Amino acid sequence: MTTARPSVHATAPSPHGASDPRQEGPPDLRLAGPALAAWAAAAIGLGAPGSGVAVACAVGVLLAALALRVAVLRRRAERGGGEEREGPEECEQHEVDEEGNENEEGNENEEYDEDEEYEEDEQSGAGAGRGAAGGAGAVRGGAAGRTYRPGSSRRWSSGAWVALAAVLLGAVAGAASAALHAADVRRGPLPDLADRYARVTVELEVTDDPRLTRPRVRGSQRTPAAVVFNADAVRVTAPDGAVTAVRTPTLVLVRQGGSDKGAPPDGVSSAGERDRPDEHSASAASALSEAWRGLLPSTRIRVVARAVPPLMPGDQVAAVLRVDADAPPVKVGGPSVLQRVAGRVRAGLREATDGLRPDARALLPGLVVGDTSRVPPDLDEAFRATDLTHLLAVSGSNLTIVLALLIGPPHLATRAERRGLAPRLRLSLRGTAVIGGVLALAFVVVCRPDPSVLRAAACGLITLLAIGTGRRRSLLPALAAAVLLLVLYDPWLARRFGFLLSVLATGALLLLAPRWSAALQRRRMPPRLAEVIAAAAAAQAVCAPVIVVLAARVGLVAVPCNLLAELAVGPATVLGFAALVTAPFVLPVAQALAWCAGWPAEWIAGVARTGAALPGAEIGWPGGWAGALALAAVTLVLVPVGRRVVRRPWLCVLCAFALLLAVCRPAPFTRVITGWPPPGWRAVVCDVGQGDGLVLAAGDGTALVVDTGPEPRAIDRCLTELGIRRIPLLVLTHFHADHVDGLPGALRGRSVGAIETTTLQDPPGQARFVVETAARAGIPLVRAVPGERRHLGPLSWEVLWPPGSPFAPVLDGPNDASVTLLVRTGGLTLLLLGDLEPPAQQALLAAHPEVAGVDVLKVAHHGSARQDPPLMHRLAPRLALISCGADNPYGHPAPRTVAALRALGARVLRTDTDGAIAILGTPGRLAATVTGRRTGARPPSGRGGGRGRGRRRGRRIRSRGPAGARSAGPRLRAGRWRPAGSGDRRRARACTSA
């Protein structure tokens, strides 16, 4: 008789069936349970006491032994049950119908159905029997090949008990390895010396590449960059002279000379002659930094450092060694030969890319070997916003390209028609596996043992082992085995988010992506496009909850950006590897290859920058594990909804249009939905954190910008929401980092006519930053002149401060040199005080006695307690604006400053609790609209607690005007003027002042 052909052969183009059939069935999860148990036990065991881990391991071993004993007994019982069932099954060979006739044809059909049932049970039950629940699958018994189903019994099968024992043993192994590695951190004198903040002399062995930290703004200053690297302490000399040989992991922090200790920038002079350029000190500091950053792994150095405890008690290091970089590192031993070769190869790639454009020069080494030392902060932020950072973390795709040159397509690696260099070199399967293993190890050395590199190399080695032994390749068991081996080798990986993201992404590509791709292909999508979309969507779905834990955000452009970047990743990586290999031998050829690779690398950088520049590139989401669980729940709900959506083309178009609106956020659409920005706004205090950033409307898409805050993305987002495309003049009141470090964000994608600065170029390092940023953008720099008057559309303003030479002694630091502007727009008068301190405020009042009775006051120095009461009484503002960051460590704004302003009849608004603030109206109807984005911020005196996240539907707030009368003016709700008494809800909160 004939039977139906299996689907794998029936759908093949050849009449003889598929030559390389892929058997469909459930995934092989035999190693998943032990791997996950080892992972969890290692993560817990690293922070648990050693005695508790030992007791838990002993209990685990006993339970595993008991489970194995039960499995043996259960297996014997199953075999006995199969023999008992053999006789009756053989006797029932015929059926008798109601009339007493034998129905042999029906019996044959029954036997055929039972055989089909057995085949299905063998395929589905075997896979299920491999996991923890797989022991309840089908177990064959008896000579007739019948199926014995112990699953009908409520007791576990022998396979389930074996799986339980494997899980317990995996957990025991993970916990034991974690306890041993944690003991290394606590061993030796360094932990005790760190608790005492002792100054020690330590001989170190470098274990990874030194990296430069990103400068950060702390208050008004930018913290200088520091060189950071991990090292093992091998010899410790205590303050009392005791010398101890140890092997303790440490983190070394080499503090560079402050960037503000140098001179003002070239071509810019300060007030007076107290600061002069000193190029020698700057070049010396740069040379010291390069000497420390040039250290290779396995190099031995001797340092004198102050030992401090790590930030968290359960960290991987025993102490943080703070070293002052006043001299190059003292080397007591050179790197190993292997590390020297790897360092030369990496340096050759950097040299080959020196002539490329900035983005390609920075990005190509990161794509090929994970070298991100040249990636600037703005490009790094763009990659983070678009979830493309995995491209800079070397992973399985890079190793696949390397191994594909040797073995060709992996699915043909064990067959006679295999491709690649191996058959051309007449290498056997075992020889191919050995050479592939050497390439994988070299890959780890050159690209450094980061979590994603280790995971990729372990999976590759296991696959090569399968090729060398002639076994069937199975990627999911290879991933589980790689996780198990790596966690046992280095339990600290169990606590690293990079390792978690790498495993989750790989698992999604193996489990979810094929199913989603098949579903898309059933909707007539081209196979290659379906595979790419499914892979990007699956990886994003499983990794997004973890990213929420780290960044409290959800990227809306991640999948499109990944799809667009994928077009260039392959060419850039292949050409980059070719340049990497040829650079040590023929540098001109490597430069030509790098030039070719630079084009796709620039494409990737352009995709990241363009995606990150979109207003809705990412949205805020509750952080922490609670936020991760919430996002995971939302994803689980959206996946089945998405299945129904893809069946209806009109719904797909509608969802795509909605996503496009959410990402692009056109100003009219945003204004209707959120009420921001309100129509007719005169000025906006941007929510830039602990700093200043103010925008004054000067026409359609045009504005005068005063200060840019401490962070480029915040001011860029604010200007984008306001629709500002042209800035004729950008004023920087003074050079403190919380006022100027956001300058690149304000310049991004906008036409800027000139940048006006104060006369005092202090701090010099931050003044140099402004000069260099303006020079790169081709924007002229001008200085503010006292008495200077300008007008721009409806705006007019006058520079009141800093003064000329008669008042020069008053300028006691950068704050007192703040550019102070008196602005008039739409009949309103605004005074912007910068960060003036009381002495400068008193001098300002003496120099300009005519200034009095302003409508809006931008309070000096973020509302600090250092205010001049006579000036506040003279100004008597109706609306006082304070720009400060939520939960800032300086206590801004000071309660007594807020109370004094309220006592004068002013309505006080602040960005830490109210979000961005928009001023609108006329002198008769002055109004302000706020976004109210803050959550958990410290409430002002006499007010309620924090606000919820997102744009807030708030209440209307009135305040008394100068004469004490209540405001009876109209209200601004949902971006429209409404008469008093209208009851519709509003998106942005309106605050009115008579």
Could you characterize what this model shows?
Pfam families: Competence (PF03772), Lactamase_B (PF00753). InterPro entries: ComEC_N (IPR004477), Competence_DNA_uptake (IPR052159), Metallo-B-lactamas (IPR001279), RibonucZ/Hydroxyglut_hydro (IPR036866). Helix content is 46%, strand content 16%. The longest helix is centred in the first third of the chain and has 42 residues, at 50-91. It is globular, with a radius of gyration of 35 Å. 42% of the residues are buried. It has 994 residues and is an alpha+beta fold. Strands 19-18-17-16-15-14-27-28-32-29 form a 10-stranded mixed sheet, with no helix packed on it.
Quick structural summary:
Residues 1-30, 78-154, 254-285, 930-994 are annotated as: Disordered. With 994 residues, this protein is an alpha+beta fold. A hairpin with a 2-residue loop joins strand 22 (820-825) and strand 23.
The CA-CA distance between the termini, in Å, is 96 Å
Broad shape: globular
Oligomer: single chain
Helix content: 40-55%
Question: Which radius of gyration do the C-alpha atoms yield?
Answer: 35 Å
Major sheet size, sense and barrel closure: 10 strands, mixed
Strand tally is 32
Strand arrangement in the largest pleated sheet: 19-18-17-16-15-14-27-28-32-29
pLDDT average, as an integer?
A: 79
The SS-based structural class is alpha+beta
What share of residues are in beta strands?
15-25%
Low-confidence stretches: 16-23, 85-153, 258-278, 933-994
What is the tally of helical segments?
30
